[in-house]
Each structure stands twice: as C-alpha cells, then as structure tokens.
Design brief:
The complex is a heterodimer of chains A (209) and B (252).
Chain A (H helix, E strand, L loop, with lengths): L2 H8 L15 H6 L4 H25 L8 H23 L1 H7 L1 H4 L5 H9 L6 H31 L1 E2 L2 E2 L22 H18 L7
Antiparallel strand pairs in A: 1-2
Helix pairs in contact in A: 1-8, 3-4, 3-5, 3-7, 3-8, 4-5, 7-8, 8-9
Chain B lengths: L5 H46 L7 H4 E7 L2 E5 L1 H7 L3 H9 L2 E7 L4 E8 L4 E8 L6 E8 L13 H4 L8 E2 L2 E2 L3 E3 L9 E3 L5 H16 L2 H6 L7 H23 L1
Parallel strand pairs in B: 9-10
Antiparallel strand pairs in B: 1-2, 1-3, 3-4, 4-5, 5-6, 7-8
Classes of the chains: A mainly alpha (209), B alpha+beta (252).
Amino acid sequence: MSNKNLKYLTGPFSANNPVIVQILGICSALAVTVKLEPAIVMALSVTAVTAFSNLVMSLLRNGLPSRIRIIVQLVVIATLVILVDQVLKAFVYDVSKQLSVYVGLIITNCIVMGRVEAFALGNGPWASFLDGIGNGLGYGLILVIVAFFRELLGSGTLFGFPVLENDWFNLYACGYSNMGLMLFPPMALIIVGCIIWIHRSRNKDLQEK
Amino acid sequence: MNKNSNTYIIIYSTVMVVVVAILLAVAALSLQDLQYKNELNEKKTNILQALGAAEGADFDQLVKAYVVENGQQTETPAEDVFNMMKTNKDLRDNYKAGKLFLFKDNEGRVVIPMVGMGLWGDIWGYIALEQDMNTVAGIVMAHKGETPGLGAEIATPKHQDLYRGKTIFEGDEFVGVTLRKGGAQNPAHEVDAISGGTKTSDGVSAMIKDCVGAYVSVLKASPATDAVEPCAEACCAAQQTECETNNVENNE
C-alpha cells in the first residue's frame, strides 16, 4: 500500500476525524452510544456503508450525469443501508432491535454523503474504498470511546458484564452509585466535547486562532 | 455522448432502478427465513417472560397454543398460531373477526397477545394471567416508536413489574388494569401512569381493556377448579409480601 493510500485510510482516525474534526455524524453518536455492543455494530455498519458507497460511486463517477448526481448517490447509499439492515435483522436480531431506526438513519448520516461528494467523485475506486473504511472507522472510534464511558459510568458494565462489582471488590458497597445522567443523550455531547478538547490541545494545527 | 441529455438521464436512472430492485429483492428473499425465525423466537421469549419462566425454558414443552372461535377452543400447533398473528395488523384483523389466540402453560396459566395504539404508532405485548384467570402474572410490552424516556418506558421491566398481582375483575365485572395519571389510587386494578407519557399510558389502558376484554367469556368459562385455589392464594400471599417489602424499601 502506497503512502498516499495509507494516509487515506489512517487520516480520518485523528487529524481528519469525521466526528471531532469534520463534525459530521454527531446525531447518531448521541443515540447509539449508551452501550458498547450496539455502538460497535453501528460503527461496523457505517464503515461498510461508507466503504461500499465510496467504491460504487467512484466506479460510476465517469458515466454519472451530473444533473442527477445527488439522486444517484442517495439510491446507492439507501440500497446499501437496506442491505445492512436486512443482514443485521437476520444475523444479530437483538442488536438490530436496539439500534432500531438508527440503522435506517445511516442514509442521512452526513459522513456517508459527505465522503462521496468530497472524495469518491474525484478519486479512483481503491483510494475511495480506503477513504470510506478510514472514515467509517474514525467515526466508530469516537463512538466506542463515548460508549465506553457512558456504559461504564452509566450502567457500571462493559459489554453487559458488571465490572464494578465482582467476587473481590464491590464499589457499590462503598457508597458508589451509577450515574443515571450518563444514559441520556446530552452526556454523549459532553463526552464528545471533552474528546474534542483533549484532541485539539494535542494537535496545535487544529486550533483556531 | 451528452451525459446531461434527457435520454441519457432517463436510460441511466431506469437501469439503475432495475438493478437496485433486483439486488434488494434477492437479498430480502434469501434472508427472509432467518428473519422470520428471529421474530418467532422473540415472540416465544416474550411469552415466556410474561409467564416469568426461567431463562432457557423450552417454549414448546411449557406452552400450548389455542385458537378460540365462537367459544370453541381448539389446540393448534404454536407455529401455526404465530403464523396467523405474524404482524400487528394480522392480530388486529383477527381480533375484529372474533378469532382469538390463547397460550396456556403447563400450570394452567394463560397468556393473551395484545395490540393497541400508543402516541406515535403500534404498541403490543403479552399479558399472563394466573390460574384464577383474574390475577396478572406478568406483562411484556413493546412499541414501535414511543418517545424514549417517556412513552417508551412501557417497555422497561421497571414499569412492567407494576402490573404483577393486579386483578382484572371487580367481582364479576371486567375492569382491566388502568394506568392512572398522578399515581394509582385503587391498588387492585390501577398502576401509576408514566409521567410525560399520558397518551401512551392511555393507549396501554385501552389495549388491556380491549384485548383482554375480548376474552372475558373465555376466562370465565375456564375451569378455575378448587384444586388450583390454594396455589392461587399462596401466590397472592407471596405477592403481598413482595408488595410490602417494596413499600418498606420505598419508605426508607
């Protein structure tokens, strides 16, 4: 893999992260991050959709009538999202129920269309595919970090396993209690805000003057 | 070729739509069986949950399904019954047509499938009755799109636990279980409504009234034999202690 292609893949992890730098896809970051498991499934679903919509649109870009460009993008993205939804319903029914409408709402996730417009229509299929995977995973990374804190502090569990009480120690016995506020969407925004704060303070070139 | 000419655009979109349609149809058909199996499993789990069965209990061993038509109960394979109530619409149509479905467990408790309207869309669930055909053994509810944190609370165990031990008959008259705004006043037939979820709460009250109400003659005809009475009493007694412990906890 050439250096340039590697940059397409890894750039969105940090310096060009879709959520904390491009500020795209915040809405689903609020909705599906109460628990780690749905957050990871959501991340993988979005990654699949961004990767393949980028790939398909990049392949179609030369024959694409520019007047119906947006419609074609929507059809491609919607098709992929429906496919993902069907697969989730067939193989991970529980998680698909937890994600409920948010799988369908990947269609409106700004990251997907944003990357198609900004990247796939001007680059080759392989580079677009990598860019899609990179952006999907960059989005997923933030989702997982947020879900980690929300599940740990809000429910005292990770992947559904209680981690704050076990045979050796029990934090609840010492007067600790779960922070119910963490289960509500506003706390996701606050955690995303904290992530952006830490991220910017470590990346001087991202700081606005 | 002019890529922005009308002919090109029309041909392009036609081809695209046909390709997409074929792709989606193939995917939907090939995954249909797996999806249906998942839904069936969920219905079975819900019924077992309403009965308060232990996790991992075997539905096919514990529960028998019946179709009730014109007062006649016919035992029917569970798969066929689930097929007849595949969607909420099917269930609703059957209610209208007077065709009722009933699940009985091996202890003689019954489960009634319910369907109703919340604020934004369908709500549905299963209510289980003890052997006396009067006391609620458990309820499981789900919804299509009630507001999270408000109406959607009906799907939480915390809310569903409130129904256990309520009775649906006052003497000989069917009253159902009502969700009362501002807190339950009649402990026998009322539970607290959900604050901020009044429309959904009303929907649940109406759902219980309409759906369980349709079974009144069946429930009254059911053999509530003396043999099961002691158990029913024991159950009630157990529930009362439970209630009392709850109260104590609340007072603390």
